[in-house]
Amino acid sequence: MRALLVAGNWKLNGSQASINTLVADINAGLDSLHQTTVALVCTPCVYIPLVQTLTQNSTLKLGAQNVSKYEVGAYTGEVSALMLKEFGCDYVIVGHSERRALFGESDEICAQKFVMAQQGGLIPIFCVGETLAEREANQTELVIRRQLQALLDKIDVQDLVNSVLAYEPRWAIGTGKAATPEQAQAVHAYMREMIASLNKSVAEQLQILYGGSVTGSNAAELFAMPDIDGGLIGGAALNADKFLTICRAGNKA
Ligand code: 13P
Fold first, then answer.
1. Where residue 250 falls among pLDDT bands split at 50, 70, 90?
2. For residue 104, what pLDDT is reported?
3. Does the residue 96 lie in any domain?
4. Structural domain containing residue 33
5. Which of 91, 92, 214 to mutate to test the pocket of ligand 1 (most atoms within 8 A of CB)?
6. Averaged over 68-95, what is the pLDDT?
7. Would residue 14 be called left, alpha or beta, if left means φ above 0 and alpha means ψ between -120 and 50 degrees?
8. Do the Cβ atoms of 214 and 231 come closer than 8 Å?
9. Does the N terminus or the C terminus of the chain have fewer Cβ atoms within 10 A?
10. What is the average pLDDT across 51-67?
11. Closest residue CA from atom 7 of ligand 1
12. Overall domain count for the chain
């Protein structure tokens, strides 16, 4: 049985004051989670040292939202995987649709970032997902395949063991309109089958998260689906009660 991972993606939100309170409140509720559930927060870069301190005696994991495709050198504004690792990050989100759509990150760049994250000792959470227009044109599987194939062209399928995939349909992000459990399950199964055709055992171990308008009310039915191994949570992750409710929703084991 794959463990459940619930990852908060705080995006461009928070302040020192709000993050102190949020992490303290999440820490206080972690005892109520199932033993095998891993809770993770992906913070804006500048708050990583703060959250590292706040999670020192906690099971809450720390992650970043982005990483440079470069290792070191004259790349103004970039933050490397090794830097993130040095400040206690275990995970990093790669290829979030907001980075793809708003910051011009191509399939190729996302794949490069995945490689760099792993080289730096981080677990990449590699995001894929289609737009509403693509879904309506019956291109969901085509888009997912293209995004995953760009990654598989750069790595050995075995490298996926130290990674997480996330399916985030763009039309579900921040809209309050989550995919139905059946819609999400169909895409997750498709992704797992694509990996299984290359390596069955890797596919069976691989955690695939769902993201897009996950709330305390829909998390349990989403996480109950056989190929959904947790969630990538935006808005609801900014509230400790809501985030913890989602973390408690999927006691699968
Ligand atoms: P929401 O949960 O706010 O829809 O955001 C999802 C997301 O983009 C997480 O990465």
1. confident
2. 96
3. yes
4. 4-248
5. 214
6. 98
7. left
8. yes
9. N
10. 98
11. 234
12. 1
**What is the per-residue pLDDT for 251?**
62
pLDDT number for residue 253: 43
Higher pLDDT, 251 or 224: 224
- Note the pTM of the prediction, 2 decimals: 0.97
Q: How far apart are CA 154 and CA 132, in angstroms?
A: 28
174-212 per-position pLDDT tens digit: 999 999 999 999 999 999 999 999 999 999 999 999 999
Residue 214 near ligand 1, beta carbon < 6 Å: yes
> Hey, whose CA ends up nearest to atom 1 of ligand 1?
234
The CATH number linked to 115 is 3.20.20.70
Q: Quick check: is 31 in a domain?
A: yes
Residue 67 domain-assigned? yes
Overall average pLDDT of the 70-89 stretch: 98
Beta strands 61-64 and 38-43 are: parallel
- Does residue 253 belong to any structural domain of this protein? no
Of 194, 216, 197, 179, nearest to 145 by C-alpha is 194
Look up residue 248 and give its two tokens: 């408690």
